[in-house]
Write the structure tokens for this entry.
Amino acid sequence: MSILLEFNKTPQFLIVMITGEWTLTDVLKSIEDIKTESDKQEAKLILLDLQGLSSPDSEMTRFYSGEKIASVFGSFYKIAGYSQIEKINRFAETVAINRYANFKMFTSETDAINWLQS
């Protein structure tokens, strides 16, 4: 797998540092792994540090990523991600939100945390 996940549970939320190559097969598996860990940790608030993740290999990978986030987490979890501005185009976010996920992308960790805690 070309995506690596590192988990850190805080009293407020689960932090997931995600690094590697954003490919469809790996991201779909990673989303399942994040859900498994969040359930294990009883965390409904999830902070994704995506700074070490490459841009996706295609726009369809963004689409299917958003779709998978929505199908796995639904509206029962609140997920904030942050990454460099040049990597964000909001396509995966829009796909997830249109399918009732509670997911939002940010360009700063502080903004992501503030939204999670709001």
About this structure: The chain has a mean pLDDT of 97. The longest strand covers residues 45-53. Residues 3 and 107 are 20 Å apart (CA to CA). The chain has one domain: 3-117.
